[in-house]
Amino acid sequence: MPPLELQDTTVSVRIKLAVLWTSVMFCYVYGDYFELYVPGKLQEMLQGNFLFGPVTQWALVGTAVLMAVPSLMIFLSVSLPPVVARWLNIGVGLFYATIMLLIFIGGAWAFYMLFAAIEIVLALLVVWYAWHWPRKPANVA
């Protein structure tokens, strides 16, 4: 009996985008979780210090919005019309790659830099897959 070959199937660009956004979110969660182990971080949080100043409701709302968008992109990538999903993924992917690039060049602990580098690559892959979204001939009546 000859060995069986593995069957490969084409994966929809929508699924690829959703999986990339899911990977980005896991990196965000783990990076932020590991950051809690940085000496002094928990004490700083307990004292009410945030990224750029004191903790306020609006600072947390802004951060929540910043983190909610990639979460929503998982769903939006598979549910929006293709043209809208394509351009939204390109725009949001570039935005988040830029944010992570600023964090990366701003310096941090090595683990956070590693996560930032991975997140940059993942966000740029979102942009690449969205930009290269497969096309078919338009129905001309």
What can you tell me about this protein's structure?
- This protein is an all-alpha fold and 141 residues long.
- It contains 5 helices and no strands.
- Helices cover 70% and strands 0% of the residues.
How many helix segments? Answer: 5
Which regions contain 5 or more consecutive residues with pLDDT less than 50? none
Major beta sheet summary: none
Please state the CA-atom Rg, rounded to the nearest Å: 19 Å
Q: Pairing-aware structural class of the strands and helices?
A: mainly alpha
Determine the oligomeric state from the structure: single chain
State the helical fraction.
Answer: over 70%
What's the number of structural domains? 1
Share of β-strand residues: under 5%
Mean pLDDT: 91
**Per the principal axes of the C-alpha atoms, what is the gross shape?**
globular
Number of beta-strand segments: 0
State the distance separating the first and last CA atoms. 52 Å
Spell out the helices and strands N to C: HHHHH
